[in-house]
Amino acid sequence: MMAEHDTAGGVTGYIQHHLTHYTVAAGHGSFWAIHIDSIIFNFLIALLFIFLGALAARHATSGVPGRFQAFVEIMVDWVNGMVKETFQGDSKFIAPLAITIFCVAILDNFMDILPVDAFPATAHLFGVEHLRTVATADVNTTFGMSIGVFLLIQYIGIKHKGLVLFFSEWFTAPFHAHGIWKVPLAPINFVLRIIEEAVRPLSLSLRLFGNMYAGELIFLLIACFTLGATFSHLSTYVLGVGQIIAGVAWTLFHYLIIWLQAFIFMVLTIVYVSIAAERH
């Protein structure tokens, strides 16, 4: 994990450079822009997931499975069992959706393991000044994923309950009442339901984004150990050894974060969908 030789901006400039997206403005004077790097890497990872899934399906056999097929079968059985234990409704696409979310999130997160200067330095050769490779370290990506889950929650709720029951629960839960108490409690239930629905996409997106952004930042700080170092100073070798030790230690710990955050995102999706399908 070596830092770039261009140290004109110092540590602050180095970190800011690596945390800046390859951005295209939506228009002159527009207050929003498009992060091209997040879109490209997320798209490529989605294609990789589709390719690996198609490869596993094409070489699937009813006989003795290979290592890759065995790994895929174990993962599918694991997610299917989790969905059956949590989601009591009837929907055939919840398990495939959960597997997709889990695998894509893991592949996105694993981009953080690559050397911090590998892709930015390569992109610089082609005239691209800024490039970030970890799509899940971009809040726009994680928030987009959580919005997709939010829309799915509403769809499952309407599908399993119908429009009348679905929208009536906005005024009758969590505080159930009978008779004259229904009317005064309805506004309170409605406000609490709005808060509950708003918190779900926020918690999903910010949890994943915060952990991956922090992980990326720590890798950048470790890379700064030898930023601008020269081979004529003893400190270069001391800091170099420290950089290797810190990099290896954080990488090993970050593997846990990568799997854990993808798992949490998947589990919360299943739980939220299961709650939406339940009748109060």
Task: Characterise this structure.
The chain has 280 residues and is mainly alpha-helical. The protein has a domain at 33-143 and 199-277. The protein has 8 helices and 2 strands; from the N terminus they run αββααααααα. The chain has helices at 10-18, 36-58, 67-86, 94-110, 118-125, 139-172, 182-223, 234-277; strands spanning 23-25, 33-35. Strands 1-2 form a two-stranded antiparallel ribbon. β1 and β2 form a beta hairpin. α6 (139-172) runs antiparallel to α7.
| Weakly predicted, low-confidence segments | 1-6
Question: What structural category characterises the helix and strand content?
Answer: mainly alpha
Principal-axis shape equals: globular
Mean pLDDT: 86
Elements, N to C (H/E): HEEHHHHHHH
Continuous helix count: 8
Strands of the widest sheet, in order across it, are 1-2
Features:
mainly alpha, 2 strands, 280 residues, two-stranded antiparallel sheet, globular, 70% helix
Which helices and strands, and how do they pair?
Elements (H helix, E strand, L loop, with lengths): L9 H9 L4 E3 L7 E3 H23 L8 H20 L7 H17 L7 H8 L13 H34 L9 H42 L10 H44 L3
Antiparallel strand pairs: 1-2
Helix pairs in contact: 2-4, 3-4, 4-8, 6-7, 6-8, 7-8
